[in-house]
Amino acid sequence: MTMLVxxxxxxxxxxxxxxxxxxxxxxxxxxxxxxxxxxxxxSGSGKSTLLNIIGTLDVPTTGSVLLDGRDLSTLADxxxxxxxxxQLGFVFQQHHLLPQCTALENVLVPTLVGxxxxxxxTRAYELLGKVGLSTRKDYRPGQxxxxxxxxxxxxxxxxxxxRLLLADEPTGSLDRVGAEALADLLVTLNKExxxxxxxxxxxxSLASRMDRMFKLVDGGLVQENG
Length: 226
What we know:
- By secondary structure, the chain is α/β, with parallel strands linked by helices.
- It has a single domain (2-223), classed as Rossmann fold (3-Layer(aba) Sandwich), CATH 3.40.50.
- The chain contains 7 helices and 10 strands.
- It has helices at 47-54, 77-86, 103-108, 120-130, 146-158, 176-193, 204-207, and strands at 2-14, 20-32, 36-40, 62-67, 70-71, 88-92, 164-168, 196-200, 212-217, 220-223.
- It has a 6-stranded mixed beta sheet with strand order 6-7-8-3-9-10, sandwiched between helices. The chain has a 4-stranded antiparallel beta sheet with strand order 2-1-4-5, covered by helices on one side.
- Strand 7, helix 6 (176-193) and strand 8 (196-200) form a beta-alpha-beta unit.
- The longest helix has 18 residues, at 176-193.
- The chain is globular, with a radius of gyration of 17 Å.
- The two termini are 17 Å apart.
């Protein structure tokens, strides 16, 4: 069943010259629940902008983004914040972990807003187990490797049981072994937990493991496989 629909999404920014710079144009895409999607393209092509629009961190200049038939661009700021907290999970290259908190506490941060689903601490511990870090639950970020910190960020993104996980260059700061391990984790979570996954990446190795791959070319989205 279709969960996410992008309908002729465009994004322009004003330039000092006075002419608008068109980053995205007429992007249309349908994503089914439980599907995994990769978006590739060179730096500056608009990949992160597109992901931010899907995640309600930015708004399209034209077009619409519908999640379960609900137009996200029409929501008030508070409603968007609730969607981000309850239905979306985010994994960034810069993981934004709180340095003073343990791994377990960092995973629990999203549960501090609104009503949590069930026993948050139990779920946080289970998620750390799924990402291979149950023995590191009391470690602070400074005591973890870069790959381990990103795995904590993945667990944190999943704590509120989101339906859609958005990952922006998740393997960009990792070495080959760490990148492959994180790719394995994302694919496993997609399959086992049924969470829909959209990954923006430079890595063709990671992208090729998704159900479908798209490339951003001159502001438009071109399907590469699937």
